[in-house]
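Lesson 9: reading folded outputs for more than one chain in a single document. The general rule is that every protein is listed as its sequence immediately followed by its C-alpha cells, and records are never interleaved. Here is the first one.
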Amino acid sequence: MDIYSKIYYTLCQKRKQLINEWVSGSNLHRHHIIPKHSGGTDNLENYTYLTIREHIIAHFLLWKMHKNINDLRAMKMLPEKLDEYISKGYRLGFTLFS
C-alpha cells in the first residue's frame, strides 16, 4: 500500500465515527470511501464524514492513488464551497486527524 492509500484509508476510518454529528447545517460532508464513479455504493459502510478541507484532501489522495479525472474535478469544485462556509462563519477543520 502506498503512502497516499495509507493516509486516505486512515482518514476515512477515523472520521466514520462522526456519523452522529452529520446533520443538516453541520460543516461535515458525507463522502463515499469508494467513489460512485469507481463502483462505490450508497451503503452506510461506504460513507465517512469529513470537514470540507478533509474532503478536498480526500479527493486529492484518491486522484494520486487512481489518477481518475473525476476525483480531480471533485477536488477542484470543493473550494467554492469552502468560500461559502467561511462567509457563513463555519468552523473549519484544519487538521487531518484531530
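And here is the second record, again sequence then C-alpha cells.
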Amino acid sequence: MIVSISSTMVAFRLLEDRGLISGPAGRIAIAVALVQDLIVVAFIVAVPMVGGDSENLVEEIPIAAVTVTAILAGVWIVGSFPVPRVLSSVARCRARG
C-alpha cells in the first residue's frame, strides 16, 4: 500500500496566502504539481506489474492503461460534477448561518 502526502496543497496554500495564485507563475506552479500528481497514479499501477512476477507483460500493459484511465476519468467526473455542487451547497449554508 502506498501512502503519500502531496505537496500540491501545501504549495497551493502558500501561493494563496501570498496572493500569487491568480498570477501566471502561480497557475503554472499549480498546473505542474497537478500533472505530477496524476502521473504518480500511473506509476502506482505500473510498478507492481514491472517489478512482480509477471509472465506476460504484453497483456498486462493494456490492462494497466485501462485501469489508469478509469481512475483518472473517475476523479475527473467526481471533481467536475458532484464536488462543486456539494461545495456550493456548503457555502450557501454557511452564508445563511
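What the second record shows: The longest helix spans residues 24-51.
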